[in-house]
Specification:
This protein is mainly alpha-helical. Helices cover about 50% and strands about 10% of the residues. The strands form three sheets. It has a three-stranded antiparallel beta sheet with strand order 3-4-5, with helices on one face. Strands 1-2 form a two-stranded antiparallel sheet. It starts with 18 loop residues before the first helix and ends in a 6-residue tail after the last helix.
Amino acid sequence: MSFSYQFDCLPSNILTLSGYDFFQFIKNTLGEPEVNLLSKISVKTTSSFLLIENPLDIFNEDIEDEELDKLKEQLCFKIKNDKLLIKPGVLSGFLSLKQALKDKLNLQLKHQNKKKKKQQDANISSISSVLATQTTTSPSLSITEHQAYVLKLIKRWCLENKENLSLELFELEENVDFIVNIYVDHNLAIQGTIKCKCGKVIALSKNNEKIQVSNYYKHLLSVECTQ
């Protein structure tokens, strides 16, 4: 004859039960003698119940204890030669409950792993999207190359105006007459400013992703520039 228990509706928090809540669950599921046995061997949580091999193994030990003797009478049959036979329903109850808890644990771990993988996939997708954006929006020239290009434009402008104005000396020296600042903004777009010797900071425009210096020229020729 075989005995089996059905545990189709385990509490959602079954794997974290402890103390009074754990014992109440065992009492309602298996019975009060089973609760007393688990309490006797200090199994007070679901996790500890899962970790022990078989709580009924305590009856195989040669232990003198009145409480254990009473539990033996409740959970076992006494057969010839003073041997004990654990009641089939008691044994089946413990085994069935442990299997149900293991299934619950495996299902929870599977769900957690699936959720973790889904989050990892989302993170990878997000990173890929950012990298793709960086690839499409990154400037073709480096910051150093942009700065060199700006300095070249300023030098050429000085030469042209020196000839037009018939001036022997007309030049603008970097870090003396102006300071160039080329950077990449939060949208990964190249930007540039020039700080004039007079203290004014001029935002530079762009043409085909190349920094243009026309705003700086306009400032130099304006009345507000005191350089």
